[in-house]
Fold this protein.
Amino acid sequence: MGNLKNRTNFALTTKTNEQKNYMSRHSRHTSQTGIYHVMLRGTNHQPIFEKKEDYQRFVRLLRNIASPQEGPNRPSASHCSIGAYCLMPDSVHLLIKEEAHNISEVIRKLALRYAIYYNDKYHHSGELFQDRFKSEPVNDETQFLTLLSYIHQLPVAARLCYHVEDYDWSSWREYINAANRVSDFCAVSKVCDRIPRQHLIKQVNTPLPKALLVHSFDRYRGFVPDASVIEFFRTTFHVKSPKDIKQYPSQQRYKMLKEAKAFGASVRQLSRLTAMSEYFITHAGSKKKL
């Protein structure tokens, strides 16, 4: 299919020396096309989206950086172009192209604005996002298509849905509806101008090998959402809230936690949901005396 630079309007230019120097100061690999796969993750894998309105707020922030407004009906230059996004319970994945602003500046502002909203709403203190955001350059069309598939297949790999089009918080619906309406804010038309939409649909609906889905800086295989763990306790042990487990006798607590771990819940996740120590949960059901 050729080089991405020559095929897609989503990446027509290479970066200037000034932009490259800015990136190098931050020890990031520079994309020759200006396109990056970016990931923001919650500290210690904690959820960064608790309710529907949290996802909606982040989507509005994404729309604003892709189509910012200087004033009433006066759009300014795009901070960046967004080729794809997926909001997972504890992380955000973006396929993003630098435009008027440097990628580090854009993501830093995006994370800060959402963190202010989240911390104020949930009275949260401390860092919401883990370290700096992670990024990798996208320099050719094969890599672009693979990442487009990867980002949209994450909810399926995480068992949050059965089909990519069923997930509410990704950009894939913009792609499958592109023939019927104007895209919301992603650069769908620019991508589809060069890569046939039917080819994209086939590509994204073809499951990637598991080795690719377990990304170099991502680990979704075996991930069980908090909501699934809470529902597991409710249906299996008739517990209204995981924090109620502390009220049960120790042997019964051990049994609940052991079965929850077998269900797929992580120790850190159970510690957060039950307000019990990771040490206690780690050894629940073991022969080691606590």
Summary: The two ends are 60 Å apart (CA to CA).
